[in-house]
Each structure stands twice: as structure tokens, then as C-alpha cells.
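Reviewer comment 2.1 asked that we show a complete input and output for one of the modelled complexes. We chose the S-adenosylmethionine case, as it is the one discussed in the main text.
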Amino acid sequence: MSLLRSTSLVSRFSGKFPLTSARCTFSATGMETSAGADTDPTNNKSIAAEDVIPLSDGTIKEGKATILKETSKHVFYNPVQEFNRDLSILVLSVHAEDHFKQKQDKKLKEKKRNSASKENNESEATAEPIPDLEPGKSYEDGMIILEALAATGLRSIRYAKEVPGIKQIVANDLSPSAVESLKANIAYNKVEHLVSASHNDASMVMYLNRPPAPRFDVVDLDPYGCPSHFLDGAVQSVASGGLLMVTCTDMAVLAGNSPETCYSKYGAISLRNRCCYEMALRIALQCIESHANRYGRYITPLLSVSADFYIRTFVRIDSSPSVCKRSINKLSLVYQCVGCETLTLQPMGEFKSISEKNPNQMKTLLPHVPSVSETCPHCDMRYHLGGPIWNAPIHDKSFVSRLLDVVTAEDAAEKFGTCKRIEGMLSVVEEELEDIPLYYKLDRLSSLMGISTMPVLTFSSAILNAGYRLSQSHCKPSSFKTDAPQKFVWDVLRAWEKENPASEKRLKEGTVSAKLLSKAITHTVDFKMHPEANPDSRQRGKCRYQINPLKFWGPGIRSIANLQDGSIQEKQRRNQGKNAMKRKRTHTTGDAEDESKKLEESNV
Ligand SMILES: C[S@@+](CC[C@H](N)C(=O)[O-])C[C@H]1O[C@@H](n2cnc3c(N)ncnc32)[C@H](O)[C@@H]1O
Ligand SMILES: [Zn+2]
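Response of the prediction step:
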């Protein structure tokens, strides 16, 4: 595919599509938006002119890109997402090696086929060497990237200047002002040879680049809120072995505040619980997989992270209808006890060997249900049912270790503004137990049992001393994943309570705490310090969990306050107060707001 593809896209289709959003109208001369408003079709909410954030004086610099203030002032820009962009640059840089390797393997296969078909086969076919890859250059065999929702083009320009091994980037946006800003920023940064602006609906660009048209090697979706209605186009327009990168910022929906909305958007019911951030990742992954399966394609998650106010997942897409048949094994429904929040996964499929002679001959079977009894064995309460969620690994550990090699290299701090944070988070990701979906939070367990929280290392030691495995999750401090049964976990807390008794108030008959504490301890619990209780990333003092970086940080508007004049900041400060009151009434996820405070207090 050549540059012609995107330029022809831009000239053929620019502004000539009837748009779904009520606030956009179609005209013969092109797309018009209602006066003073850009639309946000992602969540059918419009962004009014007074809400659009002007950038600060001068230019904005991030990485090697510079964004012009004048042309970008009515376009979305979120400085807190630097971490998201840095991480994407890191992932793309490592993926570039895989991309060239795949191209090389394909060429070698073709060569071998051709030389085998020639009668006089004189020379053995050999692989061409992979060229030294540098950022800023266009490579014939390089990656073709679509940034489907590009806003100012900051991300695409950074990819062009900082990621090696690119052929071309199509930076697309539906908003006319975004496209104006994109064009100006591309020219100012002198990356016209790599980045072309496209003015179109994101889905339309992706539908025009699915077979029989050539596909993109990488598609980046970074919308406002939920990406789900872009997924159908995205999973079809990524080449086999290519990369799909997706951001979701609608965390309230994914984290269980609105299970019915979550079902309508992602095809899964979210649950409010201690591990809602990993649950959000797993809901998003099952949603991408289900879209991919419709076209005989499947995903392999390379890295899936929960950061700040969003989640971001990087998945490889491949084609194989037979692998798709195994997808139900990678999905589980989730039973959650309404009292003690015990979670039990109910896989939707089982994968069993069906031949003694050939144990590799596997078949997918339907599981026997239910995996729980009518009431919870720990507190006698009933269950809620959520999911389905992705139950397979959410990262590829070998890929993560390659990312860590790059981010710990000598020149990493020059390349990535958020280098230390990436290194810290990836170190925890690398330690995560990949076969254990979801995590506990020690403070939440303690509060359910009505006792004081024991030191994390004491708790970890008790689990490890009993021969179980344990790791933390990158999603939250004081989180832990373990293969220890819930019964044993409760026994650890009961044993702690013996020396640190729960208050009388919590032991009132009928409460969850009273029910949990009424059960006898049936395991031996040993609190002696275990040599592996303190993970390597913690011992080496890595920046493992981010404390909210800026005042008024958050998605969209909230995040830009630090770039504005005092009056707007003052207005935002006042609004934040109101929103906080509203949140108190509507949010029940609980721990997100206080996380940085808790982090300081906890000994994690
Ligand atoms: C969150 S911003 C993108 C930020 C950008 N990726 C970055 O890193 O700075 C979302 C953008 O999507 C655009 N957008 C919304 N719906 C769209 C659609 N259907 N097609 C293309 N662009 C769309 C908006 O105009 C907005 O500029
Ligand atoms: Zn229970």
C-alpha cells in the first residue's frame, strides 16, 4: 500500500459521509457541524464551544513533537496522556522488529517456493537481513499505521519522529478543526513524508481498508470514552500478525457503576468489586475478541494496563477459524457473592484431550454448571452474575520483557518523559501471576472482616509459607493475586484477628464480618517472614504505582486545567467540588479517589 491510499481516501471521502450524530449535518460542500460545537459521537454527547480547551501560550512540546497553539486551540489535547503515548511508542518500537521479521519470513517462504518450482535450482534461498531501523525514515517494508482518532496529531507525529521502521501513518479525525490542526502540525514538524492527514469517520477509513483492500499493520483507537463501536472496523482492518491498540476511558461503566450500560456497550456485565480495574481490562479484551471472532480472527494480548483514569490494551490480531473455536475457553462468567465478595469463575468452555493415542488432539466441550452452590460457603449470602470476561493471560511476558529491555536502556530517559513510571509499572506487570485472573485487595478483605489491615509482607508471607503462589497486580497498590483458595485467605485473616480482635460493633449478629469470623480456622497459618514476600520491583524501589500527577488531572477537560488561566482553573475548582458531591451519591467504586492517600499510608 502506498501513500496514494490515504491521499485518495482523503480526497475521495473527505467530509462526504452522512454522519450518525444528530449534531452533524451532511451538505454538498462537505461536513458541517452545528454552530460552535464539535461532536463527540463516541458517547453521543456533544462538546460545546465553551468546554473546548484552548492550549497554553506558545507551543506544546511532548517527546520530539511540537504542537502549534493557534491551530490546535479548539482540538482535544490531554497532557496527562503522555504516559499512554510514551507506552504506545515503546510498544510500537518493539513491535517494529516483529513486523520486519514477519515480512522477512514471508519473503523467504516465497523465495523457497519459487526456487523449488524452478528446474535448475542453483542457489539456496536465504533471508534478507533486516535493515537498521531508525525513526523519521520511511521504509518500503515498514509499518503502515492508522491513528483513527488523531485530534491534534500529536500522537502520530510522535510515532513518526520516535518509532523506527514505519512506512506511513494515516492520522484521521472527523472534526474539521482537528484536521486543520493536524495538517498544520504535520507541516510544522516536517513529517509530511511519513504522516498524512485524513478527514473521515474512523469506521469508514477502516472499512475501506479491509480485504480485498490492503490492511493496516497497526490501528490505534484512542477515543473519548468507549471504543466499542469502532471495533468492528478495527478488527477487520488490521493485517494478520498486526497490532491493535485500544484506549477506554469510560471507567465508571467498566468498573461496575452501570452494569446494564456495560452490557450494551461491551457485551458483558461489569461488577462493582475490589478488582474492578482488571475486570475492566478483561471485559474490554473479551469484547475485542468477540468482534474479531466474527471474521475468523482472534487476539493475543501483548500488554494490558490500567493507568490513571483509563485502560489501554495492545493486542496482536491473527486469522484462524480453528483457533476461534477455542475462544469460549478463554471466557468466563463471574459469580460474585453479595456479602463477602468472593469471586468464582465459570469458564464458558472446556478444552479436553479426546484421544489417548494422540493427547494433542483437543476438543472444546461445554462445562458442567454451576460452579457454585446456591449460597456462599463463607457468609451464606447469594450471588450476582457478571461477565463474560477474558480469563486467559492479559500480557505476553516475553513481549513485556523486551519492553523492559528498551525502557531500562541508557538512553531511555531521553526517549520517554515517563520512563521511570513505565519501568515501574512494567516491573510489576512482569511479576504478575499470568494464570490467575483478578486480584484481592488486602484493605477490602480486612474491612469485610471488620479487622485492622495487617502489613502486606506479613500477609504475603502467610500465603507463601503455605506453599501457594502470590504476586501483586499493576492495577492497584495493596492488590494481590494468588492461587490460594478463598477459604485459606479468610483463614489468614481469621488468624490475624486472634491477635488483633475485631471491634464488638462489627461482630453484631447477621453482619458479614460476624459470619466470616464465626467459622473455625481449618488451616495452619504461619506469619513468619518469607524470603520471597518482598517482590523484586519493591525492593529495588521502582516507581510502581502512580500518585495523581497534577491538580485537576483526569480525562478530557479536567486534565487541561494546568494549561489555562486562573479564572478557568477557579471555575473548574468550583465545579470539581460539585462533582465530588455528585460522585459521593453516584459512585460506589470507592477506592479510586483516595488511592494516592492510601498509597502513602500503606506499606506497599
Ligand atoms: C480523545 S481524542 C484523541 C486524542 C489523540 N489520540 C491524542 O493522543 O492526543 C478523540 C478524537 O476523536 C475524534 N472523533 C470522534 N469521533 C470520531 C469518528 N467517528 N471518526 C473520527 N474521529 C472521531 C474527535 O474529534 C477527537 O479529536
Ligand atoms: Zn460470601
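The pocket of S-adenosylmethionine (ligand 1) is lined by residues 38, 40-42, 76-77, 81, 85, 149-151, 154-155, 172-175, 178, 201-202, 222-224 (CB under 6 Å). We note this here for comparison with the apo prediction described in Section 3.2.
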